[in-house]
Structure formats: C-alpha cells, structure tokens
Amino acid sequence: MAEWLRRQGHRVIRTASSYWFDQGPRVYQAFPYHWVIEPDRRELAQFLLSQMAIGLRFSTPLTASLGAYSYHAVHENGPYTMATLPRRARTAVRKGLRNVSVEPIDLERLATEGWELRAQTLQRQGRTGAETADWWANMCRSAEGLPGFEAWGALLRGRLVAAILAVTCDDCYTLLYQQSATEYLHYGANNALAYVVTHEAMTRSGIKRVFYGLHSLDAPLEVDTFKLRMGYTVKPLRQRVVFNPLLAPCFNRYSHTLIKRLLDKRPDNTFLAKAEGMIRFYLQGRLPLEQQPVPPALAETAPPDTDEPED
User: Fold this and answer.
1) DSSP readout, 256-274?
2) Would you say residue 302 has pLDDT above 50?
3) 309, 104, 112, 20: CA torsion to nearest 10
4) Gap between the Cα atoms of 245 and 223, Å rounded
5) Which of 39, 177, 197, 208 could cysteine-pair with 17, CB 3.0–4.6 Å?
6) Chain center to CA of 101
7) Torsion sign, CA atoms 115, 119, 121, 122
8) What is the pLDDT of residues 121-130, one digit of tens each?
9) Domain ranges of the chain
10) What is the DSSP letter of 82?
C-alpha cells in the first residue's frame, strides 16, 4: 500500500504506531485503513512538528480518551453467503446476478472504462469535481504489479457497469473504491458485485475480515446505508483528528462556523467539505463520548433502502 501511494505522488511517513500519507495539503491519514491505533502524545507532536503538518487523522479504540464517535464498516468472523444476507439483500443480489456477470478485470480496464462509472458515482453523491480522469487513471495504474491489488467488474452483455478496486493487507481484504453507472443501478449490479467480491474474499485462506470503509468526513449517509443493507456491520470506535499544536487554537467553533457558511455557498467545494469534516471531528472528539452525537449508521433505527455504495 505504501508503494501504491508513493507511485501516485503521495508522501509516505512511518512512525512507531502506523504509516501515514498526505491525503491533502499537509494533512495526513493513517493507513492501512483498518488499523486501530493509539499513538502517544509525544509521537503525534513529533510527527506534526517535524513534518510541518497541519493535521492528521486515525482510528482509535472506543476506550480512548479522545476522538469522535465513529465506526468502520466491516464483515468479519464468519462466512458471507446468501444465507447470511438480510432478506432484502438476497432479493437484490439474485436480481443482480440474473442481469450481470461478476468477474476479475485487469487494472488497465478499470483505469479507462472505470472512469465514467466513477464520474457518475461522484455526481450522485454530490461530489462532482472531487476527482479527475487523469487522477483516476494514475491511481489505478499505480497498483500494476503490486501484490494484493485486484479489480472486479460487473458486466452487462460485455459492458462494464460497476467495478471495485480492492487490496489485501494483513488478514484484511479492503474495498478501496466502488463505482457504477447510474443507468444500471436498478439492475442490481452494485449488489451483485459487492456480494460476489465479499463472498470470494471470505473463502480465502488467511482472510478474517472485509473492510468496506471508514466513517467519512463528508460523504452522504446513503453510502453506508448500502453497506448495512448488504449485511455489513458498523464497528464502533473513535476517529481522532489532531492538529499541529502551533495551529490548534485556530480550530474552534468560530472557525468551524465560518467554514460551514462558506460550504453552504459552495457545496461542491471538496476542500471546504473535508476541512469542515476535519474540524467537526476534532471538536466532537474533545467531548466525552456520552456528550457526542451518535453517528446515524450506529443509531438503532434502520435506514431506508439504497443502492449507492461508497469508497
């Protein structure tokens, strides 16, 4: 994973607890994404100051003293079969499998044909402009020849209508990006693709879990609703955002309000959306867990049906 990120042009740093990459300008994300870590105060301060970083983000246990109430979407501890799926998911998967075939595809096909699927997915999620065709092609091709990376596609009469990029790391199979054509959502292609890939991964020797993503800073609720409808569970934890100690006083409820107002005027601005999410997680994470809002995906009430996954 480190080499994949380096090939894309990211800066990768190793510390005692984890690996990190510059997900944004001087903002670092811990990886592999499924790791749940507890770096101490000294490690974090040394990293932020030595790299002149603005901030960083990582997953930490629910028992940690700081961090926003959050989750990972996962399937673990057992097989993933039609019998284990919720009833609605079984119906959707069967429909999808009648309409499409699901099979491995090469990374070059994902880099070329996959972009239109990606662009349509971003449009549905209100994130048009967040990525570009050149970025997508480079990201896909950067995985060429690296062990653990693979692509899967759902094909309708030979046409690629949905696709996944995945990677195996440790005992975990991670779904990195999933995208699909809007025109074929009602065919159940996303459901069939997610089911086949997850089922196949859980049959592999050494794989104990499939990781379907972090609680996002800015993605709509529907993206995790799909995962829950497909029989995944949300694993509670805390997601911590730490800012450079020299800059931390600037990130407060006043600056958060300002960013939110700017975002209201420019809802398609990816930078503002990520900045708002980082500050929100930071401020929430300083509160006791019982005083924080419960993420909707962790709420007891079941969310509405949806066919929209998210990377």
Assistant:
1) HHHHHHHHHH-TT-HHHHH
2) no
3) 60
4) 33
5) 39
6) 25
7) positive
8) 999 988 888 8
9) 74-234
10) G
What length does the chain have? Answer: 311
Q: Please report, for residues 21, 112, 147, 188, 200, the alpha-carbon distance to residue 197 in angstroms, rounded to integers and kept in the order given.
A: 27, 21, 17, 14, 5
Mean pLDDT of 229-240: 95
At 34 the three-state DSSP class reads coil
| Tokens (6 digits) for 150 | 């693979």
Look up residue 132 and give its DSSP letter. -
Both tokens of 262, joined, read 């700017």
pLDDT digits (tens, 9 = 90+) for 255-283: 999 999 999 999 888 899 999 999 999 99
In the predicted structure, residue 119 carries a pLDDT above the cut 50 = yes
Domain 74-234 has CATH 2.40.50.100: no
Distance CA 234, CA 228 (A): 8
Tokens of 9: 């042009």
Give dist(CA 106, CA 291) in Å, integer.
Answer: 47
Q: Which whole number is the average pLDDT over 164-192? A: 96
